[in-house]
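Wed. Picked up where I left off yesterday with RNA polymerase subunit sigma-70. The coffee machine is broken again, so keeping this brief.
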Amino acid sequence: MSDTAQLASDAGSRDPAVGLRAVRALRMLVERLEALQVENAREQGWSWQEIAHCLEVSRQAVHKKYAGGRGLLRRER
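Structure written out below (tokens, as returned):
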């Protein structure tokens, strides 16, 4: 079983400690994937509005989260 599949399985655990750790790890994975795809979209010339539409959030929300060096990937660099 892949690590991601194991995390998904663990997220449904009856043991809250196991389940909550898995949920946290999955949340971190999703945040990283979102940041990668936002960066990908911006590099391909997508507008903040187009990205926001796909993520079903406001343009302001996605811009605030990722523009001007405030995004997940930019903080890590």
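Quick read: The two ends are 31 Å apart (CA to CA).
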